[in-house]
Amino acid sequence: MSKNQAKEKSETAVLEFNDFRPKAGDVIGHFELKKKIGEGGMASVYLAVDKNLSRKVALKLLSFSKIPFGEKHMRDTIEKRFIQEAKSAALVNYSGIAQIYEAMFPRNDNWYIAMEYIDGGTFQDLIDSDEQVSFEKIKEIAHNVATSLNYAWENHKLIHRDIKPQNLMLTKKGEIKIVDLGLAKPLLSEEESLNITIVGAAVGTPYYMAPEQAEGQDNVDLRCDIYALGVTLYELCTGKKPFEGKTHPMIFMAQMQNQYKKISTMREDIPDAFEKLIGQMLEPQPSDRLDSYQVLIDELESMTSGKKEKIQPKKQAPETTKKVDKSPRIKAKQAQLPDTQEIIKNEEKELKKKQKIEKDLTQMTQKAVEKIKKTDDQLFEKEEPKRQAVGSKMNTYISMSEFMIKVKMKNIFPAMNTNVMDLCKLKERKNVRANELTKIIMRDSSLSSNFLSVINSSLYSPNIPIKTVSQAVVLLGFEKVRMLALRLSLFTKDYKNKKNQLLLNLMTSSYFTGAFTMGLLGKSGYPKSEEGFIAGMLSQIPQYIIANIFPSHYLRIRNLVREGKSIDTACRQVLNLNYDLLSKNIISSWQLPDELKKTLLRSTDKKGYLKPFIHEAAILSDMYFGNIKTDKKRLKVVTERLQQLTHKQSLRLSTFIETTCNSDKSINKFFDFTEKNIGETVGLIKTGAVPFNHFIVPNAVSLVKNK
Fold first, then answer.
1. Which of 103, 395, 504, 521 is the S-S candidate for 700 at Cβ 3.0 to 4.6 Å?
2. Which residues contact 494 (CB under 8 A, 6 or more apart)?
3. Which pLDDT belongs to residue 11?
4. Cα–Cα distance between 337 and 602 in angstroms, integer?
5. 326/468 Cα distance (integer angstroms)
């Protein structure tokens, strides 16, 4: 058999294995499948019979067919978790935790775990029933689960990480069993622990995850299971979860606010001491939370208890028309926290608004760009006859190839610092943990301080104060946090090393171009406004390169721009070079990470969505620093163009500039701009009195003087 034939046969075998669909009657190993009794995201559980020992087992089969074709990293992660579940269950031999009998992980065959079969239901069945669970039953549940978790912790330092009603089962004999150790984690040394967390994701179930677990922290311990047990006990008491939300960030915000309806307002039979105990379990900060199972067990045993009732599993009732139940428990189930309800309402309203805008945004932007182009022609060409041959009036100073040779010889491209490179690498990798992003930001004290300042400003307007980078990842998402850190890292290094006032002005102007681009994109409803900031800021680099190599020529270009010419027209007239083509050549020659290079090239694409926003943002930045003349007529025209571009007829130019500058705390940190400075400049813009090369940046001016 040839190598190719062997390869084809191997691929066929894997395909057949991946397409395997188990059914009743199939035999896997020495287990005969009887019926499916459960199904999860990547595994199915079957009632099966061990043919060797003639006993019932729960056979958990890994469903490789659910893994998208070609997703090797995903498959590796799922396999590791499946093996981890088997190993964790094998560690613990305790009556309150479902026992494992056997596990097999053969190459190109069915992976399975044979476990103790529990003939009963889950606590979720108990919660979903119309029967109110008595306090005595709830106390017994709490005691038994805490005792089992305490055994796993004290003897094996094992944490479950996914305690919830669905993973707590009740046998027909009234015994309580903890199942599903797929996320269980022994607290081993760093070398022994499994790295099985994917991009920006925390492991667990959001409603039951402790805040530190939701943040993706590495150093979680038994307190995350205590928190999850607290949520479960609250739900058993009231029939509803303490913290609600339609999305993970909304749930996290509710948890951090720690505002939930008191159990005593819904049930009179729950002792105050038990409610207080649950409150200690639900503390959002691990340092404030109950941190010992033994303390929990002792507290439960000290509570006054009546006759102990034997817990019976829920019986399956025949399907009937659902009756309207006005019992206090059902009312409690339907109740919502006012604060959380308001958050949900606002989030849903904002989501619908964005979806509506995004649907036809591209088409509307194209129409706006066409109108802007016509307005530009009327404004800049009205006062002078159209040139019949623009090229004939230009002096040829240098060819494109000669210009690029000078650029490469001088090697004047701004250097990318370590933070920028590492943040870009996170984008390129598929299997990356959220805490890696946190570590990159936290290792630079200046970056982390600036990051938290910006993230808590009106630019992002979080519903609760964000105190840590990991909280920001949960609330805003992995990618948004990464992009913010990237754009803050891009600017800091080069700016403060510039001796030349002209170059300082350019660097400052480039930051403002990014800020205005982000502001305009935000007004238009684009979700990736951070990408716009980076593209807007770096789009000014070609001007920075020209100013370095040909400072006198660049000043002539700026004078023409101030008189009303576009940057491309001015560049043609002074250097006889096409500015867009020049920009693309510079970007291609710059040793940038692929992500930034692609973003910049998109910003020069005339058909792309970024270009018109960057164009208008650059004009606003030039107006702010007096690089173009402003008068009432120009202000009116620019305002109308911005209204067309953002589809906001209520937009006012001066208000937009002032709000954008004041909401970005980095402007104050980088440039020492105060609200008074910004207000004064906006006042000058409105009157058309901004002086040429207006530059009221205290830090920059002092830097120039000191040098």
1. 504
2. 414, 415, 507
3. 39
4. 45
5. 44
- The C-alpha atoms of residue 676 and residue 691 are separated, in whole angstroms, by 18
Q: What is the DSSP string of 54-119?
A: TEEEEEEEE-GGGSPTT-HHHHHHHHHHHHHHHHHHHH---TTB--EEEEE--TTS--EEEEE---
Does residue 135 sit in helix, strand or coil? helix
Structure tokens at 697: 């940046």
pLDDT tens column, 624-643: 877 777 778 888 888 899 99
Distance, in Å, from the CA atom of 328 to the CA atom of 335, rounded to the nearest integer, reads: 10
* Exposed / middle / buried, residue 561 (Cβ in 10 Å: 0-12, 13-18, 19+): buried
Rounded to whole angstroms, the Cα distance separating 123 from 233 reads 10
CA–CA distance, 707 with 499 (Å, rounded to integer): 6
Q: Is the per-residue pLDDT at 17 higher than 50? A: no
The pLDDT confidence band at residue 297, using thresholds 50, 70 and 90, is very high
Judge whether residue 232 has pLDDT over 90.
yes
Nearest to 472 by CA among 427, 432, 433, 441: 441
**Are 91 and 83 within 8 A, CB to CB?**
no
Q: How far apart are CA 561 and CA 626, in angstroms?
A: 11
Bridge partners, 59 (sequence order): 46, 114
Kindly indicate the confidence band of residue 366, based on its pLDDT and cuts at 50, 70 and 90: low
- 217/433 Cα distance (integer angstroms): 10
Q: pLDDT tens for residues 566-592?
A: 888 888 888 888 888 888 888 887 777
Name the token pair of 603: 């910003």
Interatomic CA distance for residues 566 and 560, integer angstroms: 8
Residue 493 burial by Cβ neighbours in a 10 Å radius (0-12, 13-18, 19+): middle
Strand, helix or coil for residue 632: helix
Q: How would DSSP label each residue in 256-295?
A: HHT----GGGT-SSS-HHHHHHHHHHT-SSGGGS---HHH
Residue 500's pLDDT band (cuts 50, 70, 90):
low
Round to the nearest angstrom and report the end-to-end CA distance of the chain.
76
Residue-wise pLDDT tens digits, 267-296:
989 999 999 999 999 999 999 999 999 999
480: number of Cβ within 10 Å: 18
Residue keyed to tokens 């599903």: 180
Tell me the C-alpha distance between 398 and 461, whole Å: 49
CA dihedral 457, 462, 464, 465 (to 10 degrees): -30
Q: Provide the CA 357 distance to its chain's centre, in angstroms.
A: 21
Type and span of the H or E element at 669:
helix 665-671
Alpha helices in 477-565 (DSSP H): 478-495, 501-524, 529-538, 541-549, 551-562
Secondary structure of residue 233 in the 3-state scheme = helix
The pLDDT assigned to 306 comes to 39
Contact 332, 174 (CB under 8 A): no
Helix (H, G, I), strand (E, B) or coil at 57: strand
Q: Give the pLDDT band (50/70/90) at residue 168.
A: very high
Mean model confidence pLDDT for the chain = 75
Say what angle helices 653-663 and 501-524 make with each other, to 10 degrees: 110
Q: What is the pTM of this model?
A: 0.61
